[in-house]
Amino acid sequence: MDDFYTASTLVLEEVAEFFETSWPLADVDLLEGTLTVTLHGGQQYVIHKHGVTRQIWLASPFTGAHHFHFKDVQWRCTRTGIVLQALLTNECDSHAP
Description:
By secondary structure, this protein is α+β, with helices and mostly antiparallel strands.
Protein backbone atom coordinates (compact mmCIF):
# COMPACT_ATOMS: atom_id res chain seq x y z
CA MET A 1 0.00 0.00 0.00
CA ASP A 2 1.16 3.54 -0.75
CA ASP A 3 2.84 5.22 2.26
CA PHE A 4 1.14 8.54 1.49
CA TYR A 5 -2.28 6.91 1.42
CA THR A 6 -1.65 5.07 4.70
CA ALA A 7 -0.15 8.05 6.55
CA SER A 8 -2.75 10.54 5.30
CA THR A 9 -5.68 8.26 6.11
CA LEU A 10 -4.35 7.69 9.61
CA VAL A 11 -3.82 11.38 10.33
CA LEU A 12 -7.30 12.32 9.07
CA GLU A 13 -8.80 9.70 11.39
CA GLU A 14 -6.71 11.02 14.30
CA VAL A 15 -7.73 14.62 13.58
CA ALA A 16 -11.41 13.62 13.36
CA GLU A 17 -11.11 11.99 16.79
CA PHE A 18 -9.31 15.10 18.11
CA PHE A 19 -12.22 17.33 17.06
CA GLU A 20 -14.82 14.92 18.42
CA THR A 21 -13.21 14.94 21.87
CA SER A 22 -11.86 18.51 22.03
CA TRP A 23 -14.80 20.31 20.42
CA PRO A 24 -17.86 18.23 21.39
CA LEU A 25 -20.33 20.65 19.76
CA ALA A 26 -18.61 20.32 16.38
CA ASP A 27 -20.13 18.38 13.50
CA VAL A 28 -17.33 16.09 12.27
CA ASP A 29 -17.63 14.37 8.88
CA LEU A 30 -14.85 12.27 7.33
CA LEU A 31 -15.71 11.08 3.85
CA GLU A 32 -13.46 9.89 1.01
CA GLY A 33 -10.30 11.60 2.20
CA THR A 34 -11.92 14.88 3.21
CA LEU A 35 -12.58 15.90 6.80
CA THR A 36 -15.12 18.66 7.28
CA VAL A 37 -15.59 20.08 10.77
CA THR A 38 -18.34 22.61 11.37
CA LEU A 39 -18.00 24.37 14.71
CA HIS A 40 -20.89 25.55 16.85
CA GLY A 41 -20.64 29.13 15.56
CA GLY A 42 -20.71 28.01 11.92
CA GLN A 43 -16.96 28.30 11.28
CA GLN A 44 -15.64 25.41 9.25
CA TYR A 45 -12.41 23.47 8.88
CA VAL A 46 -11.79 21.52 5.69
CA ILE A 47 -8.85 19.12 5.76
CA HIS A 48 -8.13 16.81 2.86
CA LYS A 49 -5.57 14.69 1.09
CA HIS A 50 -3.98 16.23 -1.95
CA GLY A 51 -2.57 13.24 -3.78
CA VAL A 52 -0.83 15.13 -6.58
CA THR A 53 1.45 16.97 -4.15
CA ARG A 54 1.29 14.18 -1.52
CA GLN A 55 0.23 16.74 1.09
CA ILE A 56 -2.56 17.33 3.56
CA TRP A 57 -4.29 20.64 2.88
CA LEU A 58 -6.08 22.46 5.68
CA ALA A 59 -8.40 25.45 5.54
CA SER A 60 -8.83 26.92 9.02
CA PRO A 61 -11.50 29.49 9.90
CA PHE A 62 -8.96 31.12 12.21
CA THR A 63 -5.59 31.00 10.43
CA GLY A 64 -6.40 30.35 6.77
CA ALA A 65 -4.80 27.86 4.42
CA HIS A 66 -1.95 25.50 5.31
CA HIS A 67 -0.22 22.71 3.40
CA PHE A 68 1.45 19.85 5.28
CA HIS A 69 3.99 17.35 4.01
CA PHE A 70 5.07 14.15 5.71
CA LYS A 71 8.54 14.67 7.17
CA ASP A 72 10.28 12.89 10.03
CA VAL A 73 7.15 10.83 10.75
CA GLN A 74 5.04 13.98 11.20
CA TRP A 75 2.87 16.21 9.03
CA ARG A 76 4.67 19.57 8.96
CA CYS A 77 3.49 22.87 7.47
CA THR A 78 5.40 23.70 4.32
CA ARG A 79 5.56 27.37 5.32
CA THR A 80 6.16 27.38 9.07
CA GLY A 81 7.25 23.83 9.94
CA ILE A 82 4.61 23.50 12.65
CA VAL A 83 3.20 19.99 13.09
CA LEU A 84 -0.46 19.60 12.07
CA GLN A 85 -1.60 18.38 15.49
CA ALA A 86 0.23 21.25 17.23
CA LEU A 87 -1.48 23.82 15.02
CA LEU A 88 -4.89 22.34 15.79
CA THR A 89 -4.15 22.09 19.51
CA ASN A 90 -3.09 25.77 19.55
CA GLU A 91 -6.29 26.78 17.76
CA CYS A 92 -8.39 24.65 20.09
CA ASP A 93 -6.75 26.24 23.12
CA SER A 94 -7.45 29.71 21.68
CA HIS A 95 -10.95 29.24 20.27
CA ALA A 96 -12.74 26.18 21.70
CA PRO A 97 -15.80 26.84 23.84
